[in-house]
Amino acid sequence: MMEKDLQLNMDAYLPLRDVVFQTLRSAILRGDLKPGERLMELQLASKLGVSRTPIREAIRMLEQEGLAITIPRRGAEVAKMTEKDMGDTLQIRRALEELAVVLVCDKITEEDVAELRAAMKHFEEMTKQDNVVDLAKADVALHETVYRIADNPKLVQLLGDIREQMFRYRAEYLKDRSIYPILIQEHRDMVDALEKRNKDLVVKITMKHLYNQEEGMKRIIRQQQ
């Protein structure tokens, strides 16, 4: 733990606990902090040059995202990825995403299509970089644009909760560069179908998109066991 290259990414506009959270979150998503690795408050506080309070608060935030877990008499550690957890989360996401794209077909405008295509293009540009966390964020941004167009705040809130739980799985999935052409084509097909307001087609494309993600993640999880 003490040898990890952990450095605070200071942001004057964020509380210290959020800065610590983002630092630890990035380390977990990059794989610098491995599943099962202990998150010891005292060592982390010393390494990051902060008190134990923001460390403790950040660990609670990691637990809310499913990135950490506290075990009795052992303390906090990086949560392991499991097929069951990933499958349960994606099961809910499929139902919510289907509702979102159907709602979008009733409401989408030319301006919305332009915004979707801009987000899609940004994702495609990010596939040329070597930063899986930023690529995952670009993928999230595209889907969040769809959610915003759906214009249902309650739905957006629920999808936001699922998004946080899915982020590590998404980041792991995106480490495989061989899938990028497939993802790019799926995004293009989805936006085309939304522009045409073709509900049946966009639901079919979205479900295939999520199925491919689930199967890819299952392979990764099995390889790590």
Task: Characterise the protein shown here.
By secondary structure, this protein is mainly α. It has two domains: 16-78, Arc Repressor Mutant, subunit A (Orthogonal Bundle), CATH 1.10.10; 83-224, Up-down Bundle (Four Helix Bundle (Hemerythrin (Met), subunit A)). Helices cover 71% and strands 4% of the residues. The protein has nine helices and two strands; from the N terminus they run αααββαααααα. Strands 1-2 form a two-stranded antiparallel ribbon. A hairpin with a 3-residue loop joins strand 1 and strand 2 (75-78). Helix 4 packs antiparallel against helix 9 and helix 8 (180-195) runs antiparallel to helix 9 (199-224). The longest helix has 26 residues, at 199-224. The relative contact order is 0.12. The mean pLDDT is 91.
Q: Radius of gyration, rounded? A: 19 Å
Distance between the termini: 21 Å
**How is the largest sheet built, in terms of strand order?**
1-2
Quote the average pLDDT.
91
- So what's the oligomer here? single chain
Largest sheet report: 2 strands, antiparallel
Number of E-state strands? 2
Helix content: over 70%
DSSP summary: helix tally: 9
- Under the CATH scheme, which class of the largest domain? Mainly Alpha
Number of domains: 2
CATH topology of the largest domain: Four Helix Bundle (Hemerythrin (Met), subunit A)
